[in-house]
């Protein structure tokens, strides 16, 4: 864990800035007279930019190295934040917000790729749990730093982004090897870790919808605006409490079984919330949301840990980037059918949708695990005793050394000359 402290510290500062920006942008756009439709268009620009940034980030890391890639992307983010107050209208805000999506996607790819490559399989679940808990706390604390007066929030945001570069620049002993692959190969990733890919997509669909409509759910069951908004806090609070125990459990068990079990719990809790009678006390609704968040909001980190377990070390960065893309795609697609179900069945339609998604993920993971285990069993050949002097025995026993120059990194964390 200590070698990863610098990158963890950078992630905390970065997420605090991200939380501040999420609260600052709508207020700034409203102050400039933008309509609700314009603000919604700008919000969609972030998703477009985030997906594009995930596609480009592995190549940037491969070309520049982890440290220079992070520093360059942080500088880009600082420039964009300086430009935000100068945006003249909806189009300008859309383009700048899309570019911040590119920057954040690149920075998070560097951070999560660094953590994934720098941890062992037996510890990855717990390390990623620590990462998720600390960065969620920072994301929740970011809006508390908001002071709407003048340009002060933008300056504070730039300060947080640039401060996050300092621990990265001092993390020389912890720099992982550069990625040997930069292309996004979702088909190959599906062959290696189908449960992780399906899990990230389902989590994007379900949690993206839940976070988008949780306050609306509260309003439609008769809660006040402040009580409905507190449902988001309940969701995140539940996930903070359960992320570490679930990560530690996944380090000791087959992660696919843990993913399936957590998704099954999410399906059961969703069904219970869908059947919650009208007029239920607010504390019961908050408790239900906290329990739901303690399961479903924890699946993403488990899926990332599982994927990093099974892919070669040189492909961890594009793997993390690919999972982010799949999650973002799910988050963009999910709210549309979720809204239709809420209009058709009322507030309970939100949890009917969540139950279907979680149940589908549970079945998929269990079926894929059974198919994979059956395939491995059929590939096991019968034992044949071979004398050491036979050609086959000699080929097995002869020591060999293979050096893959793609995994070589210089002391400065940069690719060797000629690469």
From TrEMBL:
Keywords per UniProt: Membrane, Plasmid, Transmembrane, Transmembrane helix
Keyword hit for Lyase: no
One example GO MF annotation: transmembrane transporter activity
Matches recorded under SUPFAM superfamilies: MFS general substrate transporter (SSF103473)
GO cellular component: plasma membrane
Domain of life: Bacteria
Keyword rRNA-binding: no
Ranges annotated as spanning the membrane: 39-57, 69-88, 94-115, 127-146, 152-171, 192-217, 223-245, 257-277, 283-304, 316-336, 348-367
Protein's UniProt name: MFS transporter
